[in-house]
């Protein structure tokens, strides 16, 4: 698609020669192929940008439940993710208090108008070929080298979530 754009071709042909026709190992021609299985769950469709204010309605009961489970959650993650026993953490109670204070601020005003801190594109309704063309998924299309060069590559990056994909194709004899 990139080459077609640079050469002013609006609708490029899918195949230009016999050498590009995909064949299975047993000699069948692949008429069409797609990937099935990956999905995106979204509470609301659309693009959310950090520079456009958005209305958020938070559920106080859920926030309170999360607030109350902060010490257990942090302890579990310290041990599971980082292998750090609780005895080695000097300021555990202070850090838990900071997180709980953040929840208290959210509980004080559950109906909020803020600039989101996430970028979200709902691709739930996109066809798999569009997802593949735009390199949105599957993650097998991105190798470690591409991932390391990415601007958004951080230890806490959520883009590294692995999805289960299955190849599906239509064959001819």
From TrEMBL:
Tell me which GO cellular component terms the UniProt record holds.
epsilon DNA polymerase complex
The reactions it catalyses are: DNA(n) + a 2'-deoxyribonucleoside 5'-triphosphate = DNA(n+1) + diphosphate
- EC id: 2.7.7.7
> Which species does this protein come from?
Strongylus vulgaris
Q: What protein name does the entry list?
A: DNA polymerase epsilon catalytic subunit
Q: Where in the cell is it found?
A: Nucleus
PANTHER family associated with the record = DNA POLYMERASE EPSILON CATALYTIC SUBUNIT A
The taxonomic lineage of its organism, from the top, reads: Eukaryota, Metazoa, Ecdysozoa, Nematoda, Chromadorea
- Names of the cofactor(s): [4Fe-4S] cluster
Is Transmembrane helix set as a keyword in this record?
Answer: no
